[in-house]
Design brief:
The chain has 133 residues and is of the alpha+beta class. It has a single domain, classed as Roll (Nuclear Transport Factor 2, Chain: A), CATH 3.10.450.50. It has four helices and six strands, in the order ααββαββββα. Strands 2-1-6-5-4-3 form a six-stranded mixed beta sheet. Strand 3 and strand 4 form a beta hairpin. The longest helix is centred in the middle third of the chain and has 14 residues. The relative contact order is 0.19. Pfam families: SnoaL_2 (PF12680). It comes from Paracoccus litorisediminis. This is Isopropylmalate/homocitrate/citramalate synthase.
Length: 133
């Protein structure tokens, strides 16, 4: 599977809520660099992150555009997060079912045909303003 197809499959699984399938696209030594957070290393910590996110947020990504270098070992994706804030996340505003639309992007490193690094960026202040309105 080429890099763009790998990332498209990863996001298709995300949008369908198939978090276990998402793990199949990840390298065993995945490094997950979370916006405003710590680096999570390994599939188990990624699985725990997904469980937390699934409980707190319902999100679908739209307008996904995937870019990859010629070697296929580096890539990026830009998209729009369309979400609902389901359960209060510690340190963030209270969840009351608020909806939000947030531009975001992710950078990837690909190794051995799998995603070895995910670095996601979005504007937390924008999100906070949307769910606090």
């Amino acid at each position: 599977m080429d890099t763009k197809a790998l990332i498209a499959a990863y996001y298709a699984a995300f949008n369908a809520g198939r978090t276990d399938e998402m793990l199949t696209y990840l390298h065993d030594q995945i490094e997950h660099h979370v916006n405003e957070g710590q680096i999570r290393r390994g599939k188990e910590l990624f699985r725990e992150f997904n469980a937390h996110m699934t409980a707190s947020y319902k999100e679908v990504l739209t307008d996904i555009v995937i870019f990859a270098n010629e070697a296929g070992d580096r890539a990026a994706a830009e998209f729009v997060v369309n979400g609902t804030y389901l359960q209060t996340d510690e340190g963030l505003p209270e969840a009351k079912g608020q909806t939000y639309v947030l531009p975001a992007g992710t950078f990837f490193t690909i190794r051995d045909g799998k995603i070895a690094r995910l670095t996601t960026y979005y504007n937390l202040a924008d999100w906070t303003q949307q769910v606090s309105a």
